[in-house]
Amino acid sequence: MRTRRPPTPYSGPVDDSLLTHGRALKHVQVREYVRSLVAGQAPGSPAPSERELVHRFGVARMTVRQALDTLVSEGLLERIPGRGTFVARPPRVTSTITGYSEEMARRGLLSESQTLLARREQAGPGVARALNLTEGDAVIHWRRLRRGDGQPICLEDAYLNEVLIPGFLQSGMPTSLYDELGERGLRPTWAEDSITADKATREEAELLELAPGAVVMRHSRRALAGEKAIEVSRSVYRADRFTMWIQLGG
Amino acid sequence: MRTRRPPTPYSGPVDDSLLTHGRALKHVQVREYVRSLVAGQAPGSPAPSERELVHRFGVARMTVRQALDTLVSEGLLERIPGRGTFVARPPRVTSTITGYSEEMARRGLLSESQTLLARREQAGPGVARALNLTEGDAVIHWRRLRRGDGQPICLEDAYLNEVLIPGFLQSGMPTSLYDELGERGLRPTWAEDSITADKATREEAELLELAPGAVVMRHSRRALAGEKAIEVSRSVYRADRFTMWIQLGG
DNA sequence: GAGTGGTCTAGACCACGAT
DNA sequence: TCGTGGTCTAGACCACTCT
């Protein structure tokens, strides 16, 4: 039986991001070592064997397994019993939440965005409910006319929970809302969308340079980052210039 | 230090589904015991503590942790350091691939489906490409008029890879395509959808009981079960009676 | 202080794949 | 046969929460 374990005064080079209470956890060290080894490797490339890592780090095999378990559950590695551990083929993208800018980029179109309105408002009943706020709470209302290759494509009214993004209006409006949210750790991870077809109102037709009554697609979204309802938006798209693409599942 | 472990001749009641090579793995026993305890429990209810399970099953704590790890990664349990292990609140549904029947059921509408066509055809170029087939390969073409509460809502043309579902046409058409595919282990796990708005053609307008030129929503789907492309479909929905709901992310 | 989960050890035997 | 991952043991110390 083992006696007391010494207080593990680890003293090697340590990435600060890997510290917990001032000390790097061993399984984290192993995990990040393997992650860096494996970064950029082709799918199917072998990762170090568990016993090799045991040797290199002087840790128990269970510790190595804990490290690899994480990477396997991340989809980075794949274990094949009797053969070894290998770089997994990149898992199919699991329905990413994308915004308009990314949608346009994906099709190779130049994405432009003209802000028609960006101001603090009091939440109405619908917006308040969608953002888990109380009616009258402060929200940011951002209305944009969006173009692809110069042509009007979409008119979007987004409402953002101001409490979650202090200084948003003052900092100048970002090009990509979702990138900006990402930098604040609030990139939406979940969204409820609804989509229907309709005819453009007169105002919409004017802004989108359509004949009144032309066919449009209406898209509503409620986007959440973790538990936080961050954005609710209503968009109207020219049907003749826009097809929505969605990938579901993983 | 331990000596050799005895050959673990487990003899308790064993669910066949839990057997591997004729012997129930201990972590599986523990896992399924906890799963059954926790089934139907309200979120936040405590699960047995790790040490309690160690006692009850006479196993090492690492074994119990392995069992609980699985349930945690399934989203069934949640660990809170210093407090215990608890039933997790049901994880948000990660964008399920749903078919029309399930969509209707979700809104509490009576879903009906009238088969207009169900036959073997030779794949055209578009369908062949979508199903990873060669032009001329056999596909099943299934055209349905779908109603909600008696009203025409959707006209759908589905093409299925016949090789993957032998005897499909002969067995009588199912009510829910996705349920039927599920029973063959081919429930789609991934789908590429595209959605746009348009005006109904004369034929569509007739079948959907619309005025010619009325606004409709067009929906295309390419659905895969694992690596197998199983279904490709084109649907047209009456915009006045149907809004598409999508949940993204998890 | 008692109980909980988080981390870690230093081994063991097994089934399986490659050689 | 040798190396691999899969399973398992019987403990240990830690930080944390709750009472």
UniProtKB/TrEMBL annotation, chains A, B:
<keyword id="KW-0804">Transcription</keyword>
<dbReference type="InterPro" id="IPR028978">
    <property type="entry name" value="Chorismate_lyase_/UTRA_dom_sf"/>
</dbReference>
<dbReference type="Pfam" id="PF07702">
    <property type="entry name" value="UTRA"/>
</dbReference>
<dbReference type="InterPro" id="IPR000524">
    <property type="entry name" value="Tscrpt_reg_HTH_GntR"/>
</dbReference>
<dbReference type="InterPro" id="IPR050679">
    <property type="entry name" value="Bact_HTH_transcr_reg"/>
</dbReference>
<keyword id="KW-0238">DNA-binding</keyword>
<keyword id="KW-0805">Transcription regulation</keyword>
<dbReference type="InterPro" id="IPR011663">
    <property type="entry name" value="UTRA"/>
</dbReference>
<protein>
    <submittedName>
        <fullName>GntR family transcriptional regulator</fullName>
    </submittedName>
</protein>
<dbReference type="Pfam" id="PF00392">
    <property type="entry name" value="GntR"/>
</dbReference>
<feature type="domain" description="HTH gntR-type">
    <location>
        <begin position="24"/>
        <end position="90"/>
    </location>
</feature>
<dbReference type="InterPro" id="IPR036390">
    <property type="entry name" value="WH_DNA-bd_sf"/>
</dbReference>
<dbReference type="InterPro" id="IPR036388">
    <property type="entry name" value="WH-like_DNA-bd_sf"/>
</dbReference>
